[in-house]
Design goal:
rod-shaped, Alpha-Beta Plaits, 4-stranded antiparallel sheet, alpha+beta, single chain, 5 helices
Length: about 190
């Protein structure tokens, strides 16, 4: 250090000022970094508080979320049951077919049996009708068969059996007629 004493005073002052400037710039850098870290810490603290608030709000609606999920599952189950019922239901109403048959058959015909079967595996909009009854003579049975076959609601009406009633002197006949029932056209509906 003895050598420094012989250096000019301006040089020593400049050297001292540079060191102080260097120290000041490092202090300013440290203060700036501390301010950045402090603001970052405040931001993280606020973010954690917001996250805790959101998590708390989520737990408040958990019961409602569970209720909505159970209601959706219940609605889905209900819709599946309705679809199953719709697939099982035929488009042919028995009361409509009975009214149509009563309207078409002659008044002298009496029915003993009326069967309407929806055949599984067949078209869902078709059914098989089987009429068993009696008529005063063969002409009335033929007339009933013709009227059923001419109706747009029935298709392929056939006489399965027609026989004279035993012990009847008046010529009455028992008969069995089968036909396919078609669904009612939208234009025919009332």
């Amino acid at each position: 250090m003895h050598e420094l004493e012989f250096l000019p005073e301006d040089y020593l002052r400049a050297r001292f000022q540079r060191r102080i400037g260097f120290i000041r710039s490092w202090l300013l850098l440290a203060i700036g970094l501390a301010m950045v870290l402090w603001s970052l810490q405040a931001w993280v603290r606020d973010a954690r508080a917001d996250l805790a608030a959101v998590r708390g709000a989520g737990s408040a609606v958990d019961a409602d979320v569970k209720k909505v999920r159970s209601l959706r599952a219940e609605a889905r189950f209900h819709n599946q049951r309705l679809d199953l019922l719709r697939s099982l239901r035929s488009g042919i109403a028995v009361t409509d077919v009975i009214a149509e048959v009563v309207h078409l058959l002659p008044s002298s015909v009496a029915l003993d049996n009326f069967d309407l079967d929806h055949v599984m595996g067949a078209e869902p909009e078709r059914a098989r009708l089987r009429l068993c009854g009696w008529a005063p003579d063969a002409m009335v049975v033929t007339q009933a068969l013709g009227q059923l076959d001419a109706s747009p609601r029935f298709e392929r009406a056939i006489l399965v059996r027609s026989k004279l009633l035993s012990g009847d002197a008046g010529g009455r006949r028992s008969f069995v007629i089968e036909a396919e029932v078609l669904p009612r056209c939208p234009a025919e509906e009332r």
